[in-house]
Write a structure and sequence with these properties.
This protein is α+β, with helices and mostly antiparallel strands. The protein is built from 19 helices and 20 strands. The relative contact order is 0.19.
Length: 575
């Protein structure tokens, strides 16, 4: 089974499974295809995080494709550039690209196919074309002035003939196709599959890709701050990064083990929220009711406050252990009343002082209300892609590729892509666990999920959505594990989320007491939430969440999958 956020990527992944490839071969092929067909939501210059398990070893493992800050990306340098926040777009926001190297590590460690065969679909769609999404055109329209006036290389690639492509028009990216072919050429002399993969990685990290990117971004260019700056990334930064595998963080909830990333991502938010909610009665946990929606929103505010106070690549493992403990969850649960909180309330943890981020509000906005927001400056309030694959043998992977959006920074013309903007999730304040630190990973929002029962993987799931990713996944888990919904029913049910936390994306604003709900949840629920003090923004009926999932019954081997129907773009397939 294959489920992704774009039908072409699903078709590619499924075609690999049909021809004997395993789940990891299929995931890599689909992942590189997403770079081509959803360029407004991810790209080769971005990042990727996955949670996986193999048929031979069901222990969940995290694939970490989040690159670090460049060596010259210091708080002092950015402050010296006159910045109070890391910009949301432009070369100074770029972490070292991690997605491509991570996909290569996954293929090397657990795949079976030849690299050239895995990449053939992506090369074909980049060279020969694919039908462009309406949302790609809308994204380009949002930044048209920026492209024309400041980023001419981006205009040349994304506005062929000087215009925005029409929905369904066939578009190409020959420069990216050539880049992939050149990277494959680097391994032609190698005699083993692993050797060819490693040659590809070396050329990416130390060869022409790193050289072109570093040289191009040395020229000052417009950032979302409205000012011009040169990037600080160097070839040595590319060469110094290697994606790797690390232990997943897990808790049990209603007989199911939930596996997530560590605190370099926001994955533990989902685990903390489940811990808080686990002692509530089932009647309190239906997100489609006023009572359930209120309880879920309040639990999420508490978990997200801890995210901003304690999470980061340098977070102390002992602190995370406390945050995930039943005892700590009890203290947080006691804070939930019948009224909506408008406060930022991190908890008290032994041996750590909570970081209190700047709490800025933005008049007239409700972050995350509906479809992804792309500003004219290129800054994007969070969206990405997702894919899930399970094969006949029981290999399973959930992956969330992101960053390197076409609006992240100027296109590097020789490469056919731009670098990402993940460093905007760091703070320019000393003492923050997610402060901008040379060589350290920014705290990412990427948060795929793996579910296990009796130590055996049974499901992979995830969603795009920036700060909303774990929030929407929480709704899914409550509806399936508590409410008895089928996967597709849970994905299609009305969604909601809180905006009552500092946003992870520039300009890092929040809405105290903010809640966004799909109008399908019902006028009575909306009125009830407002009566409890929630600042409710009502979004369109089918606008929040883009979940997908695959499942496998270990007893029977039967597979199933489900995908988001919002936007008529996600797709699940299998046999």
């Amino acid at each position: 089974m294959t489920a992704t956020t774009h039908w072409i990527a699903t078709a590619v992944g499924q075609s690999v499974l049909e021809r004997g490839g395993n789940a990891f071969d299929a995931a890599v092929a689909a992942g590189f295809t997403l770079h081509v067909v959803e360029p407004h939501l991810n790209g080769p210059g971005g990042d990727m995080t996955a949670v996986l398990a193999t048929a031979a070893d069901p222990t969940p493992v995290v694939l970490n494709g989040q690159g670090p800050a460049p060596a010259a990306a210091s708080i002092a340098h950015y402050r010296g550039e006159g910045l109070d926040l890391v910009p949301g777009a432009g070369g100074l926001a770029a972490a070292v690209p991690g997605a491509v190297d991570a996909w290569m590590v996954l293929l090397r460690e657990h795949g079976t196919w030849e690299l050239a065969d895995v990449l053939a679909p992506a090369i074909g769609y980049a060279r020969d074309g694919h039908p462009v999404l309406r949302r790609v055109g809308r994204t380009i329209a949002s930044v048209e002035e920026l492209f024309r006036d400041h980023w001419p290389t981006s205009a040349a690639l994304w506005m062929p003939e000087g215009r925005i492509p029409e929905p369904g028009e066939i578009v190409t990216n020959p420069a990216w196709a050539r880049t992939l072919e050149r990277l494959l050429e680097a391994g032609k002399a190698e005699t083993t599959r692993e050797g060819r993969i490693e040659a590809f990685r070396r050329e990416w990290r130390e060869g022409f890709v790193a050289r072109e990117a570093a040289e191009f971004l040395r020229t000052p260019h417009r950032h979302s701050s409205g000012t011009d700056h040169a990037g600080v990334i160097e070839v040595s930064d590319f060469a110094g990064f290697s994606a790797g595998l690390e232990e997943a963080v897990t808790i049990g909830f209603r007989g199911t083990t939930v596996a997530k990333t560590g605190p370099f991502g926001q994955g533990p938010v989902l685990l903390q929220a489940l811990r808080i909610l686990d002692k509530f009665d089932d009647a309190d946990l239906d997100p489609s009711t006023e009572r359930g929606a209120h309880t879920v929103l309040e639990a999420l505010k508490l978990a997200l406050a801890d995210r901003d106070a304690y999470y980061g690549s340098q977070a102390d493992p002992a602190v995370l252990a406390q945050l995930l403990s039943p005892e700590y969850a009890a203290t947080r649960r006691a804070l939930i009343t019948d009224r909506a909180s408008h406060e930022f309330r991190p908890g008290v943890v032994d041996g750590a002082e909570p970081f209190l981020p700047p709490l800025a509000t933005e008049a007239g906005t409700a972050a995350g209300a509906g479809e992804p927001t792309v500003e004219t400056s290129g800054s994007t309030k969070g969206d990405t892609c997702h894919l899930d694959v399970v094969d006949r043998w029981g290999n399973v992977v959930s992956a969330t590729p992101s960053g390197g959006w076409l609006q992240s920074s100027p296109t590097i013309p020789e490469l056919g892509f731009c670098l990402g903007s993940r460093l905007q999730m760091t703070w320019l304040e000393e003492g923050s666990p997610s402060a901008l630190t040379p060589g350290e990973r920014p705290r990412t929002t990427l948060t795929p999920t793996l579910l296990l029962r009796d130590g055996v993987p049974v499901a992979a799931l995830g969603t795009p959505g920036g700060d909303q990713q774990d929030q929407w996944q929480l709704l899914y888990l409550l509806r399936t594990l508590v409410g008895g919904y089928s996967p597709q029913q849970a994905i299609d049910a009305p969604a909601l989320h809180t905006t009552s936390m500092p946003g992870s994306f520039w300009p890092r604003t929040w809405t105290p007491g903010g809640a966004v709900v799909e109008d399908r949840i019902g006028a009575d629920v909306v009125a009830g939430l407002r009566a409890r003090g929630h600042e409710v923004t009502v979004a369109g009926g089918w606008t929040l969440g883009r979940l997908s999932t695959v499942e496998r019954d270990p007893a029977t081997g039967v597979l199933q999958a489900a995908a988001n129907s919002r936007g008529a773009q996600g797709y699940a397939a299998g046999r």
